Amino acid sequence: ETGVTQTPRHLVMGMTNKKSLKCEQHLGHNAMYWYKQSAKKPLELMFVYSLEERVENNSVPSRFSPECPNSSHLFLHLHTLQPEDSALYLCASSQVPAGGYEQYFGPGTRLTVT
Amino acid sequence: AQSVAQPEDQVNVAEGNPLTVKCTYSVSGNPYLFWYVQYPNRGLQFLLKYITGDNLVKGSYGFEAEFNKSQTSFHLKKPSALVSDSALYFCAVRIPAGTALIFGKGTTLSVSS
To answer: Which of A41, B21, B43, B54 has its CA 20 to 30 A from that of B90?
Structure first.
């Protein structure tokens, strides 16, 4: 595997389910990110994990909880989601600061909440 | 507050013609600027970045971008468009003193044959 991988690629879940999204980066980077991409809206940064900072976007509901056990893996735990949470969830990684801060993205998980 | 604006939702250009996708930014200090492309059902792909140095930055797939400090712009350009360039393009700026990026809302580029 190369680059940034995400599993599953597609997920359909009910509002009462609990699921997790997984992201793995094979680039040796030291920072990882979760973004939400909804139709007609800008990418929304949800969470950042890096040696320099850990950032949680205060506008992200508590039904989303991140976990970063090491610099290569990132999870997004989902529970009691709402239909408006249906979106493409993108994971990214970067090398900071020496790497120049450009982020490399995975293919995303298309989440549908029914 | 830091922000990025992409004033055009869609840009249409004929194959072989030059293309420009516009981006303006507002950020304190020296900006780190980026362009990404997204094809359907794919993640974002990094095209190029500006940190310092020459105002004209060259990137992947023949794309380049021109940094203009006085106009606070970072427009993406390509001398000759290809149909395969049709995609969604995002401009982004690094948050000062942080690692996160702020993205514009995206511009859909449509290249007709």
So the answer is: B54
